[in-house]
Every structure is written in structure tokens, then in C-alpha cells.
Amino acid sequence: MSEERRGALRRILAIRGMPQVITVTVGLLLIFVAFSMLSENFTSSRNLRNLLRQLAPILIIGIAQSYVLITGNIDLSIGSVVGMSCMISATLMTRGVSPLAAVAVTIVCCLLIGLLNGQLVALCGLPPFIATLGTMTIARGIAQIVNDNRNTDSIGEAARGFRNLFYYGEVSIGGLRIFNTVIIAAVLWVVFNFILSSTRTGRHIYAAGSNIEAARMSGVNINRTVTAAYLVSAFCSCVVGFITCATGGVGTMDAGNMYEMYAVAASVIGGVSTLGGQGLLLGTVIGASIWSVLQNGLVLSGAAVAIRNIAVGIIVVISVLLDIVVRNGKWLKKKGTA
Fold first, then answer.
1. Are 120 and 136 in contact (CB under 8 A)?
2. Other residues' Cβ atoms within 10 Å of the Cβ of residue 27
3. What are phi and psi of 30, to 5 degrees?
4. Residue 176: phi, psi to the nearest 5?
5. What whole-number distance in Å separates Cα of residue 183 and Cα of residue 305?
6. Residue 245 CB burial class (10 angstroms; 0-12, 13-18, ≥19)
7. Could you write out the DSSP letters of every residue in 122-159?
8. Is 257 exposed, middle or buried (CB count within 10 Å of its CB: 0-12, 13-18, 19+)?
9. Cβ neighbours of residue 183 under 8 Å, at least 6 residues apart?
């Protein structure tokens, strides 16, 4: 290998979080090959298209949690905001409100939860676990009360455009038919990856998670930065709520249950540090893919739901443990050479 190529490789590996991304990518390939050998249906074009559609909402909420984790915080309200989005939008549409207006109102409501999370954590100094645990309960309560503690009726034919946009619709790219859900996830990833990797806001998010006091002394507005991360989280959760509503055509009060776990899984498996200041949204794509491939492959293999949950749970715990070991190892090395 030439010196120029070695230098390019070193620069790539020097990117914060890139070694973890490479590691989990190898893991994803191994899992994919294993399930391909276990089931011939796994690599069928129909299953791969459905796999991408299943991956999309997990990637979107993974982006949501990644932003917050990189600031050194956590968002436990993600699943409840998904349910709140699903119920508010469906309730409005079943009561004659146009889908466009229902979407606008729902986005505003969800962003208010994100704003509240940011202010409770950054301005009031509440631990993020406690603050978002409280807003998780509030958002779930709103989801339950918005339609008098019952699921909604069908959103009807008037919302067909809404359902096609967020779930059933397809576009043709180079002869390939791709679901709109996948396109939405890809667009959100491109936008939020650009913000995180190429803007001042993104640099401030990393700085706040790396060392909040040093960031504050350097002029970073911690309140604005943390709140921005929680607003991104709320917006992405809102979009997943629309996808959930469009999928079934109704609003369900328990929509989004366990999505907090899925969001953390997509983030930490992909190398986003629970200690803050480290992680790439590219890794979140890989983490979400590992989660989706595992779920899909285990279903085709006939594994029970309990086994699927145990497998994902074990991987999440191992991922977080490895992150802590690596980060503490680096810290000890620096301390010893100081």
C-alpha cells in the first residue's frame, strides 16, 4: 500500500467514532451472511424490500436518540412521542381536519415536548433520565386522552395521500421500486448528518457531550445546544408516529411502546457513546440495520418473540459495556502519561 493510501486510511480511522463503525459493519455483514445461509427467503427481493421498510422507522428514531446521546444525555420520551404523534394526527383526520393541517398541528405539539425536555435538562438542571421519564408519562397521557381513552376509527379515504406518503407509496429509482418510508428516512439522515458533521451546531453538540464545562467556557450556549438535540429527537419521533399511523390507518394509544429501547439499540450498536461526545450517524445506519436484520432473520428462522428480544437486549448491553471499557481505557492511558 502506498504512503498516500496509508495516509488516507489513517485520516479515515482518525474520524471520531469511525473504528466502531467499521467494526459493527463487519458484524452486520457476518449476520447477513449467516441468515442468508439459514433461510433462502432472506435474500429474496420481496424480503429485502420489506426489510428496508422495517429498517426506516428504526433508523429515524435512532437518529433521534443519537443526537441526544452525543450531548451526554438520553431521551426516554421517544416512544411516547411516537404514540402521541400517531394519536393526535389520526384523531384530527377522523374528525374532518385535512391531513396537511393534522400533520402541522402534530409537529408543533411534538416539538413542544422536545422544547420542554431541553429546558428541563439544560435550563433547570434536571437529570435527563428523570426529566424525560416525566415527559414520557405526559406524552403517553396526551396520547390516551386526545381521543377519550380509546383508539381512533379509520382515518378513511380522505387520508389516502397521507398513507401513501408515509407508508404505502413507492418511487422508481434506476428501475428499483423503493418505498416512500425508505426515502423519508434517507432524506432525514442526509439532513441531520450534514447538520451534525458540517455545521457549528453539530460541533457544539459534540463539544457539550465531550466536556460540558469546557464547552461552556469556550462560548457554547449549552441551553440552546441541548434543546436543539431534544427538538431533533421530538421531530424524528413525530415522523415515526406518522409512519405508524399510516401503516395501520388508525391511531393506537400504545403506539411506540418499546421504541425507546429500539432507539438506544440503533444508536449504541452503531457506536454512539452513552457517555457523550462520540458517535457518527453513519454508525446509526449500521446499528439500525443490525437490529432490523436480526429481527427479520430470526422471524424467518422461526424464533419466538422472546428470543428476538433477548438477542437484541444482549447486543445492546455488550455494546454499552464495550464503549465504557474502551473509553475508560483511553482515560486511564491518558492519566498514566500525564
1. no
2. 16
3. -65, -45
4. -95, 135
5. 29
6. buried
7. IIS---HHHHHHHHHHHHHHHHHHTTTSS------GGG
8. middle
9. 171
CA-to-CA distance for 46 and 314, rounded, in angstroms? 29
Contact call for residues 31 and 158 (beta carbons, < 8 A): no
- Domain residue spans of the chain: 20-337
Q: Determine the Cα–Cα distance for residues 113 and 116; give it in Å rounded to an integer.
A: 5
Write phi, then psi, for 199 (nearest 5 degrees): -130, 165
Q: Determine the Cα–Cα distance for residues 85 and 237; give it in Å rounded to an integer.
A: 8
Q: Which fold has domain 20-337?
A: ABC transporter involved in vitamin B12 uptake, BtuC (1.10.3470)
Within 10 angstroms of residue 219's Cβ, the number of other Cβ atoms is 8
Q: How many Cα atoms within 13 Å fall on the side-chain side of residue 287?
A: 33
Element (H, E) at 177: strand 176-179
Helix (H) or strand (E) holding 178: strand 176-179
The single-letter code of the amino acid at 148 is: D
pLDDT averaged over 10-residue windows placed end to end, the chain, 338 residues: 63 66 84 86 88 94 96 95 97 94 97 97 94 96 94 88 91 84 96 94 93 90 96 97 94 92 89 86 92 86 80 77 65 44
Could you tell me where the DSSP H helices lie in the chain? 3-14, 18-38, 45-70, 78-94, 99-118, 128-145, 160-163, 180-198, 200-210, 212-217, 222-248, 259-269, 281-300, 305-337
CA–CA gap between residue 173 and residue 182 (Å, rounded): 12
| In the block, residue with C-alpha cell 469511525 | 18
Q: What's the pLDDT at 271?
A: 85
Q: What would the grid cell of residue 45 be?
A: 427481493
What's the rounded Cα separation, in Å, for the pair 304 and 308? 7
Helix (H) or strand (E) holding 172: strand 170-173
**DSSP, res 44:** S
Query: Which region holds residue 260: left if phi is over 0, alpha if psi is between -120 and 50, else beta?
Result: alpha
